[in-house]
């Protein structure tokens, strides 16, 4: 029985990552995604998912406008041909061709001349960050508007403004992507990432690329769990996915929401609503073992799509592993979340921690000690040093002793790792050695 | 369904308290109570309860001497006509007419001449606080004595002392007061305060006045719980009340023992024996939200009448909300616990916290989210801002998200408040809005 | 009913210990044990156990070589006549007659001339502690060797070395000792100490003497639990004892592994695998009450024979009370663990803490308050001071109030001690007084 080959392969993958080659490779994809004008529906979203197909066999799903998904309805599809705001002096002060944040997301078509005063409620800017363009949307209430830097806004004179918004808001479909790396068991690990934001690099071009890369890396490993990667428009996409897969959610044994994975901040894990799910404990182990500063937070019902996965009717064991959390870095949801914010080494580091969490999820088992009364004689099996009297056992022997002691059918390797404070990989390997010697069987 | 109108009214009452007018009003009553010579029975006690009838319809109960109350017996009634100790030089060194602490509580009648040496075991003073007169009693063993300052005691020369103690200790009754503000449900909140101490202002004239004022304030609110205020002589009064109301104790859902409510020290909550009763958690929330330094303590079987309410045969969810706890301020049980120790602003502050605890007890419910799979679409119900992309939801939206997420029938609003760290009032109001929109129903 | 006389007697014994007389008395026995050449079998072990018979009626058990004990087999018996290593220049560089650590434990017979190079893998020394001789064994793999100081080893020139190891490794028996102080109830306290180490004074001549002394002290007390002291060779001895007494282990209600009891370090308690067994809580109470710095550690499956008692098939409530734990003092398993490391006052102090743990184990009961509704009137039974109004109850009264309050059948005196932070002895005595007054009965 080659136990948990995938866990060992994940460990080696994680240990072998080379940021110097992988970083630039991932960045190339982030750079390609960045300029596309994504929203919760539309061609920019579709193009982005197709781009990810270079990395993994992402399947696109199209859900018609008007489809009821729990308390929501899939909205009309939105596409932008052009959008421009011209000042009385002929200056083009906002143009979606220049920066796709300039247009309020889901702006309805409009063409006309408005006074400075009439324009005012259609403008969005950030007085405290006067050089940045904010990212704003109005998905569920018909509106049009422009987002611009406060510095530009404050120079706008009275007079007549030309508004040219050539968008279509029509029945169509909502698109989401999905790729499943099949597992040898029925259980699944859900990895969900949002793909509805236009040119915001860290939030979430980086996450889309990282997730597709993880899918590519996992595919050859024949993991125990299936790994289901879903690329969904935020909120409505996750809700749509859940509505269409409701009967399948029972298989989700573990899950992570991925976003903001490449900024220079420290890694942060936000626990699932359950708080002590295996994925919560695995992430905490991995971050502690990283030796780097990191954050651990309890669940709150605000953030990304963990809001949906952890709604009380589902309460799935889904946490969120990010770098700086949503809303906590100054560039968040502004034009400053650009390609310079994404650090290749940070992106590779986040990807490594995902692999390490997967290693724990793959390798975590409950074993049963077949020789539970007193210690088995490891020496006669070549598993123990023959000269006694030394004061400290070797790390490998300590790992074996811990695994034997707690393998009573009521403790998983995660339990052993938490209690012993030994590296999970050491315990997993010790368990494999002991199982090889017949001293452990699956509980 | 006007849900929890009383909770909202209590919030407004608490927010609207004006120490500048309420403080002097309460102090006037404290000043009237202070000089009366109270004990665990007798006319001073009766007069004090009648004085409280100016504030609330306190009903007086009279329990005959000799009545068996659990392991105890209601004692004979004690009344004092006069008591005086005269020194050999004619100096009156103790006179109950001057300070009613001078006479050992429950002193039996005695008239005679005693030597300095014979007098000695009948004197009580405080060597470490030589200017203060202590408060001492001998309820259950017949004795007579005088309490005086150590400074005076140390000047007492040898010679003949005249003792004139004109008291009556005869069959009569024990008196206690009770007022019930009826609730719309069967459950009751018990508020118990002792009223047996003679001229000790903080302990407990202030508590008696505060409790009667709370009863007056609650009466017009039509609360959900009944609020039962009992004004009892310490220990024997609480035991008597419990003995006469044993069958009714099952209705007591929450309770507080009130004492020492007006000294300048910080607020202190002593948990019930259960330790995690709703009232324990409500008081902790209220004190934390006050933003003031405060104390939280575990139950101990010493203190005031929580000793009886939390005896193992009852184990009622009754804590104690005081300022400085019994025995921990230097003026405790001495003549220095006088009107100068009682601070009007402290008394109003304590009363405010009682109202806030009541708000939590009134507003705490378990709700069930009627749309538990994914978030309901708040926007279409006018409960959510329409422009997306902002990094922080408004406080009201956060309160709604928390309430929706945890309203699975297993969490009360108290649970939500503890986990979210949001103000209880915000959560209560969010729940009312959501219930109004049909998104919550009582669990 | 003279409740728990043994607990009270243990308290008095502990309080009455006189290090000035007991210390030297214990040291005399340690000094006698020290030079004997013990191993996991053989005549040195036997002689050591017989020497303990001067203190307590230790019964010797002989288990034949080849006996199967769980996953292990009782090894052949090992005895040493002489063992010497002579350098080319005629210098005797190791001689078991000079220091019995010189010979690798369980060395097989060997006589011959070997070159310096051939000798090398047979030598054991400590480069970091160049003046000390290490203690090493090879029980389960046939080998021979010498342990010597690194300083001497580094002076060994090339040339021919005379090896003369006159040992016998033959079928025989493994010896262990046992003494039971019978109890009035079925439950037993297991105290296990290893006796296989040659001249190591703290590890574990001191422990052997302490345990035999405890057995002597307990015998006249008629304790409630039986106290079973086992003197076993490390690992194989404990395994052998468990194999031969498997059906009896259900009686072991509490247990302690004793070792390293006399070095100058602070007391350390290592919890049982269960972590919250009564013995774990009793030891924590005793160490906290000692007022001395001390250590508390969670169980780990490395150390002494708690490894066997706490193996998952037994999971006995057995902790370990030592001074400096195994492997954590520099003299550990070297020739520096000699008679100078053993401090009489430390040995008496450790013994005292064992007596105090036994006091808790003997005195710990669950009581039921016969007057659970309100406090009983202690005053009328002479159990409470008659003058009221004082701010602090006496310690005895506090102990009674705590015991009464928590004696609802669900709390033991250990629970009361932990919650009240009052001395266990005070609570135990308060319970005895209350039981004497009919206010408590066994739960």
Report on this structure.
- The structure is a homotrimer of 443-residue chains.
- By secondary structure, chain A is of the alpha/beta class.
- Chain A is built from 13 helices and 19 strands.
- Chain A has helices at 5-16, 19-33, 43-52, 116-119, 150-153, 201-218, 236-244, 278-289, 306-309, 344-363, 395-406, 413-420, 424-436; strands at residues 59-64, 68-69, 72-73, 77-86, 92-95, 110-115, 123-124, 146-147, 160-170, 173-181, 188-194, 226-232, 252-258, 267-270, 294-297, 318-322, 366-369, 408-412, 440-442.
- The first copy, chain A, has an eight-stranded mixed sheet, sandwiched between helices. Chain A has a four-stranded antiparallel sheet with strand order 5-4-9-6. A three-stranded antiparallel sheet of chain A has the order 18-17-19.
- In chain A, helix 2 packs across helix 6, helix 2 crosses helix 10 and helix 11 crosses helix 12 (413-420).
- The longest helix of chain A is centred in the C-terminal third of the chain and has 20 residues, at 344-363.
- Chain A is elongated and about 90 Å long.
- The two termini of chain A are 15 Å apart.
- The model of chain A has no long low-confidence stretch (mean pLDDT 96).
- Chains in contact: A-B, A-C, B-C.
- At the A-B interface, helix 7 of A face helix 11 of B.
